[in-house]
Amino acid sequence: IVEWDTAPLEISSYVTASDSNKTYTVSPSDNLSPSTNYKIRITNDVKDSTSNTSENQYNSVDGFTTLSWLGTQVFNSSDNKGDAGADIEIDSSGNIYLVGTTSGLIGSAKVSNSDGFIIKTNSAGVKLWAKNIGETQFVMGSGPKPRSDIDNSGNLYVVYTPNVQENPSYSGRAQDIWFAKYNSSGTELWSRTEGTGGSNYAAALEYAYDIKANNSGNAYLAIREQNGFCYSQKTSGVLYKVKAD
């Protein structure tokens, strides 16, 4: 995550293997505005000066959160386990909210083996608070990564598509949707898990791709379902509305 200055900035990527942190230099092209925030993602396609990819050379591209304002800050789980940034929001005061997934410890306590997370920083990139989010029955899922939005009161909404172990006696897992509302201090105001559930994994898949909050206290989820909870038949996309309060 980079806030461009008029000159090229250096950003770092945290590497979870034994290699030291690596630094990439980003040179924005002439058509990028220095007054605009841009996103950048380091992937395994990034190559060093000798054409080695970051994955092949450094064994990992697990350096999801780099914040740079004429300097560098790197946030990661304290035990360096499977961290992946997914979405970013900026509130009316310039504070930044980063959401993603982790198998490690971002905040003060883990919730499950496959948590979401929220990191809040001020406009200078200084971390204000961080927390793991989710439910105890979550396990590593293959669905879309968390998405977020902020309403006009500064509340943060997060939607996440984990695998949910609903029945301990059944080895399969339902792909359900979990969404929650947090105030600006990181306090969870409410959370919901929605889905068909049941013991048939193939018939119990829901995927949430985005969440948007309006100024009337409602949140809207963009969902793809198979035998979903809004309709009994398969659908290619459903807009599911929940009351925010």
Question: In brief, what are we looking at here?
Answer:
The chain has 245 residues and is mainly β. The protein has one helix and 20 strands.
Q: How many β-strand runs?
A: 20
Shape: globular
The largest beta-sheet arranges its strands as 7-8-9-10
Mean pLDDT over all positions: 65
Q: Structural class, from secondary structure content?
A: mainly beta
Helix/strand order? EEEEHEEEEEEEEEEEEEEEE
* Helix share, percent: under 10%
What does this structure look like?
There is one protein chain. The two termini are 31 Å apart. The radius of gyration is 19 Å and the shape is globular. The strands form seven sheets. Strands 7-8-9-10 form a four-stranded antiparallel beta sheet, with no helix packed on it. The protein has a four-stranded antiparallel beta sheet with strand order 12-13-16-17, with no helix packed on it. It has a domain at 1-76. It has one helix at residues 54-58, and strands spanning 2-3, 9-13, 22-26, 37-38, 65-67, 73-75, 84-90, 96-102, 115-121, 127-133, 138-139, 147-150, 156-160, 163-164, 174-175, 177-182, 188-194, 205-213, 218-226, 235-243. It is mostly beta strands. A hairpin with an 8-residue loop joins strand 2 (9-13) and strand 3. Residues 1-19, 57-72, 166-172, 199-203 and 228-236 have low confidence and may be disordered. The longest helix is centred in the first third of the chain and has 5 residues, at 54-58.
